[in-house]
Design goal:
The complex is a heterodimer of chains A (481) and B (108). Chain A is α/β, with parallel strands linked by helices and 481 residues long. Helix content of chain A is 34%, strand content 13%. The radius of gyration of chain A is 21 Å and the shape is globular.
Chain lengths: 481, 108
């Protein structure tokens, strides 16, 4: 795509216009996906995509919690309906400078709190493989936009699995990089010690190339690393000969649907056939990851979302008769039920008398979970392979009444956020026509190795079909580059 | 230990939220369900490990304090505000300010 624009074979705006037409088609009618909350106008896009770079002329869909200048940033919340940021996220600037064109802002669970995109104040996104099912979340709009063939790559954010789980549900590739690899400047904060911008791709290469563009130190985010960014495609097709792949027992329990286990076993067999050594390992504190996450993330959220007070952003209760009433009534009116639930949970966990029992304890358990991974790498494991989610995409509405059941959707993904390590979800087949994702986890800063293993899995699975395969001409012929 | 509706009201007050009676009852049930799940952490011996407060494993750098927000100059601030006069954002006046004392108890 970028190459054909760069060489003059295609007009700079050719792929962008094609993507816009596709996006508009999927926003309308009874079979609407509702992947986008805002799309660029056709007139704005004419002649775009001329900047020279790795993304020249490539349309990119962007999750609606990344600040953009030309489009509103609502975070899927009524609170920020119509909000326009006065600055743009560093990742958006990098995409623009590399020649990429932001096509639109994608739907998401409100403030990234959810696992199905059903918590969006603007209605859910539907899974392109089965319109009666969720696309996963919280970056469900970005995943659906790639799966439907609107774009080849998209940006999301991953606090507990919000890129990898929707990637698995939609049959695309999703990467959460090492914490600190990508700037969070301009990413609306949910849980700052866990949040990381991630990428979606129609292939491992697409997701990796977008990650290459957005990675690197940013003076405006002190948690972004000063380490040099390696070439994520170095050794891309070198395979897995000699690599040691660990398979943690705790990710293959009764919670895992039998058919998904079978797809994962088949994937491991293919890695073994290609020369990888497969070793069973134990990460003994895995069972404590979801409880730990659901103390720490809400605690941080309750602090981060205090800024939404009805004075500086979005919704303001017009009839409030005191400053305190402005806060109370604006927040009660502006936030949806899941956000309220998490703010309440986080406020409780941080309150006097409960802090040590909940927040303090969870911080220590986070250390134990991190140590589990470090011991595994020290024992000679190069990467870990796990399922991405215990189930395929579930039906719309199936879990909205049971918060704990919804939270358990993240059971295999939250550990990477707690430990700060990178993870990728790559399709490993399907069950009853619904895509299944396998997750590869790697030590900090080892994205290149992780991507190489994901590529080997992808190549080994060529030809496997899911219920509704994306248009093979998706987002432009022959891939992003 | 379960949280009571009275405690949930207190938490809502701390969080600057004002759920009605039905919402308090619902939230009480939901929070107790979640806290029941979270109580699994009580089974662990956590003597020894340090707190992990960040995903970066402590490797945080410091940013230049003089940095300006990136891209903030894209048009005058007033272009992005509903109302802007004499270099200030104009916000709706609170009715209480017309009537006298305000009950400001601090920002959330």
């Amino acid at each position: 795509m970028a190459r054909s624009v760069g060489s003059g074979e295609a007009a700079p705006d050719h792929f962008v216009m094609t993507a816009l037409a596709r996006a508009q088609r999927t926003q309308e009618g009874s079979d609407s996906l509702h992947a986008f909350l805002a799309l660029r106008e056709e007139a704005e896009l004419v002649g775009r995509g001329t900047a020279k770079g790795d993304l020249t002329g490539v349309p990119v869909a962007v999750k609606d919690n990344l600040c953009t200048l030309d489009l509103p940033t609502s975070c899927g919340s009524r609170f920020l309906e119509g909000y326009r940021s006065p600055f743009e996220a560093t990742v958006i600037r990098k995409v623009r400078e590399a020649g990429g064109v932001v096509l639109g802002k994608t739907n998401m669970d409100e403030f990234a709190m959810g696992s199905s995109t059903e918590n969006s104040a603007y209605g859910p996104t539907r899974n392109p493989h089965d319109l009666g099912r969720v696309p996963g979340g919280s970056s469900g709009g970005s995943a659906a936009a790639v799966a439907a063939g609107i774009v080849r790559c998209a940006l999301g954010s991953d606090t507990g699995g919000s890129v990898r789980q929707p990637a698995a549900f939609c049959g695309v590739v999703g990467i959460k990089p090492t914490y600190g690899r990508v700037s969070r400047y301009g990413l609306v904060a949910f849980a700052s010690s866990l949040d990381q911008v991630g990428t979606f791709g129609a292939s491992v290469e697409d997701a990796a190339r977008l990650l290459q563009v957005i990675s690197g130190h940013d003076e405006r985010d002190s948690t972004s690393t000063r380490r040099e960014v390696p070439d994520f495609l170095d050794g891309f097709d070198d395979g897995v000969e000699g690599l040691v792949v660990g398979v943690p027992d705790e990710y293959f329990t009764d919670a895992l649907e039998k058919e998904i286990r079978t797809r994962c076993d088949e994937a491991l067999e293919r890695l073994r056939d290609r020369g990888a050594r497969i070793r069973r390992v134990s990460l003994p504190h895995t069972a404590y990851a979801v409880p730990t996450y659901y103390v720490l993330a809400p605690a941080e959220a309750s602090s981060n979302l205090a800024r939404f007070d009805g004075v500086r952003y979005g919704v303001r209760a017009p009839e409030a008769e005191s400053v305190r009433a402005v806060y109370d009534e604006s927040r009660t009116r502006g936030f949806g039920p899941e956000v309220v639930r998490r703010i309440m949970l986080g406020t409780f966990a941080l309150s006097a008398g409960y802090y040590d029992a909940y927040y303090g304890r969870a911080q220590k358990v986070r250390s134990l979970i991190t140590r589990d991974f470090e011991r595994t790498w020290d024992d000679g494991i190069d990467v870990l392979f796990t399922p991405t989610s215990p189930t395929p995409a579930f039906e719309l509405g199936a879990r909205t009444g049971d918060p704990v059941a919804m939270y358990l959707s993240d059971i295999y993904t939250v550990t990477a956020n707690l430990a700060g390590i990178p993870g990728i979800s790559v399709p490993v087949g399907s069950v009853d026509g619904l895509p299944i994702g396998g997750q590869i986890l790697a030590p900090r800063w080892q994205e290149t190795r992780m991507i190489r293993v994901a590529r080997a899995l992808e190549a080994s699975l060529a030809g496997t079909r899911s219920r509704r395969d994306p248009d093979p001409r998706a987002g432009g012929e022959g891939g992003m580059v | 230990m379960a949280v009571s509706e009275e405690q949930v009201r207190r938490i809502a007050d701390l969080a600057r939220l004002k759920p009605d009676g039905a919402a308090i009852a619902r939230l009480t049930g939901e929070l107790n369900g979640i806290l029941e799940h979270v109580r699994a952490l009580e089974r662990l011996d956590v003597e020894g490990p340090e707190d992990t407060v960040h995903g970066s494993n402590g490797a945080i750098t410091y940013r230049d304090p003089d940095l300006e927000p990136d891209g903030l100059v894209a048009g005058a601030p007033g272009d992005r505000a509903p109302d802007w006069r004499n270099g200030f954002f104009v916000v709706p006046r609170l009715p209480a300010l017309d009537g006298g004392a305000d009950e400001d108890r601090g920002a959330p």
